[in-house]
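Q: Here's a chain of 401 amino acids. Please give me its 3D structure as tokens.
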Amino acid sequence: MINVKMYPAENGDCFLISFGKENRNHILIDCGYADTYHNFLKKDLKEIKKLGEKINLFIVTHIDEDHILGAIEFIKENNELQIIEIGEVWYNCYRHLQIDKNQGAISDKEKRILQREIALGESYIRRESSCKISKSEISVKQGFTLGALLLKGGYNWNSSFEGKAVSRNNIEKIEFGDMSVNVLSPNNKKLDILKKKWLKELTNKKWNFNVTEDKLFDDAFEFMLLMYDEELLIDKKEISLEEITMIASIQDIIQQKVNADKSPTNGSSIAICINYEGKNLLFLGDGHPEILYKNIYNLGVKEFDLVKIPHHGSGKNMTIQLAEILKSNKFLISTNGNKHKHPDLESIARLIYINKDINKELYFNYETKVSKWISTEEMKNAFNLDVIVGNGSLPLNIVIN
């Protein structure tokens, strides 16, 4: 038996996957925001510990606030209170990018520049995490990034990859007892694009100093990516649901050109396929559609037992080609739609139209415009749908026997 918990994570992701009935193994993927951890996840982690079990694998898919802020809270508390044992952590940050680093020291002036950026980042995280912060608090408290907290806690960090990046080019498949995990994304090319983005950002700030091994660069890298939300810079044109009155209109919607996701941070997102006792589950993070299509196709799996669709149902991450190979009777859509208006109509339309002959369940952890639109009897009958919508105050449990 497999149990998947999809937590209310606002516009983010937080999933706990448990395998078996006794002496279970657990994979935790992302932690949403700080409130996600404190209000929902922490209680379940304590229950797992009481049973003598642990988190076998903790995956933080990429540096984005809706995936990582809760992870920072979790690891910070775990270091102090030993909430639960963690077997291994997968997370890519500055130290895993192939950046040529100068072995020398940086000047005091350069340190002050980085410390200023880190102070801004700490203030940002505290604000986004609903932590109290005074207007005068600008000092640097080292160790507030996830990377720093993982180092402090001495976790097995990317140990299956010999401490290198979680990348398909390094290792494609990892065995964890009775289960295995295939890495679908990222590859070294996607990580190289992220590296170039960050180095370009340093240049844009007219920081001409050499990048070194100094830990200040670890913190500055993580904070700068967290504070830069590319999606908010894009003028997004929504399709009005009120204009879609005929089911036939879906055929026109799905044929619209996909302006594919090019975000370097999303491209670095860890996407996986979990195999356990013949069951195959896809957790696709915020991955780019072209790399997901290629590597899912190469798995040779005809139908998946569960699919967490990429990037909260963004239309930029769901092509017709990708939808055609996402054959499943269970799809998870994790978002409240408040920040980026996800899921996009065109993404869900492609998914249900291409797979209209399959009986399928679509799980939403919050009610959104799109979940309401596909919940009509007409839509459910036409596309063989069952729509399960959470109330945003409790996790959704999905059982796979």
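Q: Can you summarize the key feature?
A: The chain has one domain: 2-400.
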